[in-house]
Structures are given as C-alpha cells and as structure tokens.
C-alpha cells in the first residue's frame, strides 16, 4: 500500500464520458460532472497479487487454451513496462489482457460474429510486472471485426489491457492498437481521445529488436499510470 | 544540475467493451481457463465478521439495466483496516448478470477508516465500474443507511457531495442485504468522483 498522494488526473489524455460518435456512450455517460476529491486512504491503497494466484504460463496465449495444436494467426510478442508519470517502474502489479482471435472473433458467449472460433485460442492472459515494471505476453495478432455502431463500422485490431498499480485510484483499462492500421482513423472509440499525443501512445510500434527470428514479431507497449506527486524542493525556485 | 526528465503523461483510458468478461471474469464468459477467478470472493471461511450481501442494478439513461458491466469493490475490514486479514481480501470483482442485469456479492460490513490527519470516514465500499460505452472507469462509494450520524462528519460525503445528492450513495437495507442501485444518468444520477 502506498500513502503517497497522487497527482491529479490529466483529463486531456482521456476520452470524455460522452463521445457522441461512439453511440453506446450516449446513454451511459454521466451527465453531471465528476466530483473532484482528494484521494483518501481508501483510494490510495489497493489490492495486491502474487505468484500464488498467477501462473507463469498465464501470459502465453499460444499455449494457455491449447487443445489440438497452436492457434492460427500471426505469432506476436507484446511487451512493455508499467510506469508512473515520473517514469518510475510499477513492479509486481497485475496486468490482464483479452482480445479477439485472428479472425476477429472473441471466445465470449455474447459474440455473435460469424467468423470462426479457434479451438486453440482463448484470448485472455495475465501476468505480474517484474521489479522493473516489465511485462511480456506471447499471443497472436487479433483481427479487425465489425460492430453495430454504424452501417459499416469496424474496430481496428486491438488488445485490451487492465492494470492495477499500487493505489485503487490508479486503476486503468485501455486498449493497445497496432502501428500502421488504417482503421484507426475511422474508429470513434479511439478517436474520442482529444490529445493526439495520447492517441499516438496507444499505438504499439513494431519492435524488431525483440522479435524472435523465424518465430514471432514483437510490439512494444508502455503503460503510464498516474503517479505520485513529486516532492517539492525548497531550494529550487523552479519548483520540482 | 541536471533536472529530471519531464513527467510522462498517463496512458489514455479506453472502454472495457462488451467482452470484458473474458479478460476479467473468464468463467462467466464460458472460459474455464484459470483455476482461480480473481476477486470472486472477498471473504474466506475463516473470516469472522458476519456476512452481508450487497446487490443492485446499474441503470442507463433510458432506465434500462446495464447487463454487461463489471464492478470492482475495495473496502476495509470490520476494524477499518485496508490490509486484509482472516481470509478477508477487501477486493472483489463482480459482473451484472447477462439476463437480469443484477449484481450481487457477499462481504462483511467495513468499520470506520481513518484518513490521513486522523479524520474518521464512515463505513463505505469503493466501487469502480467499467462497461461497453463507459470510456473511463467510474468511481463511486456505497455507504450504509444505519451510519447516518457518521455521514454528517464523513470527509467525502459531507465534504464534497451536495446534500441533495448524498442519498444516491446510501444503500437501502433489508436485514443483512443492502440494495445499491447505480444510475448513470437521469434525475437520480449517482455521484461519481474524480479521485
């Protein structure tokens, strides 16, 4: 548990609750402004997880739902670090991911898209960051898929990420996208983010250094959680 | 003197989408992949405090029940400690039912939590709600109706929430069951916090 006060959220980097082009947000966005409060001990603490709950194999989506063989699709490595706003690593924190298979279909009872399920792919994984805040998943590249937002709406390929941090007030769910995807320009969920730099940071670049020759292409995705306020230095007039 | 690098910007939030269950509660989505579903129970067999049930619905702006939401709960134990003990984790994860839209979980009633500076907070549960159509997880709190005296001095309820909206954060009691309905929009819109 951390007792450090957190820095305020930068709302410019987050999509507004109401993003009219994303139809479902119209009835699900609070109409009244959020009430700003200083986080209390309740929000500055949060759950912790350990290796007793998370198996090392949980981060290998090529293996964790295998029945008859390997999943179909481009084999990829997705790796990165969880940091705070001062670029300090967030170690031993839980990272959970979920995604569609290579044909754009989720293994979910409510997904009715007629693209095939892959008997060897579950589409979910989890891991703990190491002492440097680093995480790594082995999976397949998800496919794009249609969704009923408009007459011809397609989600860009993406992987959902859920991250805890050390404080409940750092809790974050986001989506990682892939470099070069033309559907990004057309996606109202992605385009709801007002700040172009914040948008760009959700797009994972190709990382040939981490790619495994004749095996898997790598993408790098760093996640920054809101961080603790830095300590002001009395002897430094410019602040901290 | 070398100044530290400027702070990095936090990562943008995105909706959890309609298939959030395969990531966070895979068994509910029909995926028996992990032996342990994280957050499925807050209490263990050795937890001494008496059990309570918390149940409710999340309503959208049309009054319809949101049937694809996930709620995470974070709370203190009966002594007001957030550290967890006696098999009590303080953290739970629950989804609204695909058919009925109802969520329900078993826990214990928390004690008063001390905030920094010694301020006493009335017993409360922290809620964090994600779903399709919610671009960023919504933070709110549930308080207990029998603690009305403590509510008057609670630093959050009395310190930030306008009096006319406080009852949106107070559950309705029925024996050991507490009903807590959440309204995303409308006349009874629940108070959500920028924590």
Q: Which fold name fills CATH's third level, the topology of chain B?
A: Protocatechuate 3,4-Dioxygenase, subunit A
Mean pLDDT across the residues of chain A is: 92
Helix/strand-derived category of chain A reads mainly beta
Q: Specify the CATH class of chain B.
A: Mainly Beta
Question: Largest sheet of chain A, described in full?
Answer: 5 strands, mixed
Describe what you observe in this structure.
The complex is a heterodimer of chains A (240) and B (195). By secondary structure, chain A is mainly β. Chain A has a single domain, classed as Aromatic compound dioxygenase (Protocatechuate 3,4-Dioxygenase, subunit A, Sandwich). Helices cover 7% and strands 24% of the residues of chain A. Chain A is built from 4 helices and 12 strands; from the N terminus they run H-E-H-E-E-E-E-E-E-E-E-H-H-E-E-E. In chain A, the strands form 3 sheets. A 5-stranded mixed β-sheet of chain A has the order 4-3-8-9-10, with no helix packed on it. In chain A, strands 2, 5, 11 and 12 form a 4-stranded mixed β-sheet that branches. The radius of gyration of chain A is 19 Å and the shape is globular. The C terminus of chain A is likely disordered. Chain B is mainly β. Chain B has one domain: Aromatic compound dioxygenase (Protocatechuate 3,4-Dioxygenase, subunit A, Sandwich). Chain B is 5% helix and 28% strand. Chain B has 2 helices and 12 strands; from the N terminus they run H-E-E-E-E-E-E-E-E-H-E-E-E-E. In chain B, strands 1, 4, 9, 10 and 11 form a 5-stranded mixed β-sheet that branches. The radius of gyration of chain B is 18 Å and the shape is globular. The interface between A and B is large, with 86 and 78 residues. Strand 1 of chain A pairs parallel with strand 12 of chain B.
């Amino acid at each position: 548990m951390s007792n450090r006060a957190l820095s305020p959220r930068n709302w410019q980097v987050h999509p507004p609750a109401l993003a009219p082009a994303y139809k479902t947000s119209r009835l699900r966005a609070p109409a009244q402004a959020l009430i700003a409060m200083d986080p209390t001990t309740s929000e500055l603490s949060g759950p912790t997880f350990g290796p007793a709950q998370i198996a090392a194999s949980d981060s290998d989506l090529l293996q964790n739902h295998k029945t008859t063989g390997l999943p179909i699709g481009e084999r990829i490595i997705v790796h990165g670090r969880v940091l705070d706003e001062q670029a300090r690593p967030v170690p031993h924190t839980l990272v959970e991911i979920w995604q569609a298979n290579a044909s754009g279909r989720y293994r979910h009872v409510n997904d009715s898209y007629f693209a095939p399920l892959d008997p060897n792919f579950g589409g979910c994984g989890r891991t703990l960051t190491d002492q440097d805040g680093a995480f790594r998943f082995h999976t397949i590249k998800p496919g794009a898929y249609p969704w009923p937002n408009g007459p011809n709406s397609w989600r860009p390929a993406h992987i959902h990420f859920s991250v805890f941090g050390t404080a409940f007030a750092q809790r974050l769910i986001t989506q990682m996208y892939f470099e070069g995807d033309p559907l990004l320009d057309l996606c109202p969920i992605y385009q709801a983010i007002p700040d172009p730099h914040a948008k760009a940071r959700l797009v994972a670049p190709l990382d040939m250094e981490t790619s495994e020759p004749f095996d898997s292409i790598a993408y790098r995705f760093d996640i920054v959680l809101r961080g603790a306020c830095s300590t002001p230095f009395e002897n430094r007039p410019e602040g901290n | 003197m070398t100044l530290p690098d400027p702070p990095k910007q936090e990562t943008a939030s995105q909706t959890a989408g309609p298939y959030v269950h395969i990531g966070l509660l895979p068994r509910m989505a029909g995926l028996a992949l992990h032996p342990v579903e994280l957050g499925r129970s807050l209490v263990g067999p050795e937890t001494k405090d008496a059990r309570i049930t918390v149940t409710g619905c999340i309503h959208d702006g049309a009054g319809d029940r949101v049937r694809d939401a996930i709620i995470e709960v974070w709370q203190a134990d009966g002594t007001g400690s957030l550290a967890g003990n006696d098999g009590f984790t303080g953290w739970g994860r629950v989804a609204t039912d695909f058919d009925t839209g109802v969520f329900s979980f078993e826990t214990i009633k928390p004690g008063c939590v001390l905030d920094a500076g010694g301020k006493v907070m009335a017993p409360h549960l922290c809620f964090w709600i994600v779903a399709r159509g919610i671009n960023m997880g919504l933070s709110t709190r549930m308080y207990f109706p029998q603690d009305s005296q403590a509510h008057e001095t609670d630093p959050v309820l009395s310190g930030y929430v306008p009096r006319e909206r406080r009852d949106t954060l107070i559950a309705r009691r029925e024996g050991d069951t507490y009903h807590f309905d959440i309204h995303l929009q409308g006349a009874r819109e629940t108070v959500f916090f920028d924590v």
